[in-house]
Specification:
Layout lengths: L3 H25 L5 H9 L20 E2 L5 E2 L2 H11 L6 E5 L5 H7 L4 E6 L2 H13 L5 E5 L12 E6 L8 H4 L2 E11 L6 E9 L2 E10 L13
Parallel strand pairs: 3-4, 3-6, 4-5, 6-7
Antiparallel strand pairs: 1-2, 7-8, 8-9
Helix pairs in contact: 1-2
């Protein structure tokens, strides 16, 4: 006779199989960083999506979340995280907490994550998920992502999960020399690319990596959400 525990175990097994399949797919698409792949494989992505979309949690595509936002396609999460070249001792700033999925990936790879979200509703839900995962090296706040987090600057790495029309100088100014920022750049509805920005003693070096489509990076905090 099966009981509730058996059903829970079945669900976990299905998640593990789906996660393993996703990792194989990411490897086939060129993701090579084992630290990034392991971090993604360990995370229950179903925790970060609406219950009605749970069957699609491990699909390699973006899914809608509250406040008109999305949880990014796993390949894009993996690609941007790999491009960021995160180290164990790094202090990372994330702009756009969203569901908290990318935050949870980063938290496994670095010393400390500071994450900013303009929607209070999203941040509260994300904090709940991160608490369940015991991600204790994350500090979050509601705020204007374009302003960054000056009180905690400079950062070793900055990851922006919404598209800026141009590289924000306010965020470049919060990088350490030698630091890296990865972000999508381009107009809404137009051509966007993931760019890697490296701050050197002589200025910034910008590499254009892959084409993407992200929601826009909007200034200010959202009102009443």
């Amino acid at each position: 006779m099966s009981g509730p525990d058996d059903e829970d175990d079945t669900g976990l097994d299905e998640d593990r199989v789906a996660a393993a399949r996703l990792i194989m797919n990411l490897r086939a698409q060129g993701i090579r960083d084992n630290r990034v792949l392991n971090a993604i494989e360990k995370l229950p992505r179903s925790l970060f999506v609406d219950e009605a979309l749970a069957d699609h949690a491990y699909d390699d595509r973006a899914l809608p979340i509250d406040c008109g936002q999305t949880i990014s396609q796993p390949f894009v999460v993996a690609f941007m995280t790999e491009a960021l070249r995160v180290g164990d001792l790094h202090k990372v700033l994330e702009i756009g907490t969203g569901s908290g999925y990318q935050t949870a990936v980063l938290a496994q790879l670095c010393r400390r994550v500071y994450t900013i979200e303009r929607y209070r509703t999203l941040l509260k839900a994300a904090e709940g998920r991160l608490e369940r995962l015991e991600a204790r090296n994350v500090t979050a706040m509601v705020g204007d992502g374009l302003k960054g987090w000056p009180a905690q600057a400079p950062f070793d790495r900055i990851l922006v999960t919404a598209a800026a029309e141009e590289i924000p100088q306010t965020l470049v100014d919060q990088l350490k020399v030698g630091g890296i920022m990865v972000l999508p750049v381009g107009p809404v509805g137009g051509v966007q690319h993931v760019c890697r920005v490296t701050l050197t003693e002589a200025g910034t070096e910008v590499e254009e990596l892959i084409g993407v489509r992200f929601v826009p990076l909007v200034p200010g905090r959202a009102e009443h959400l």
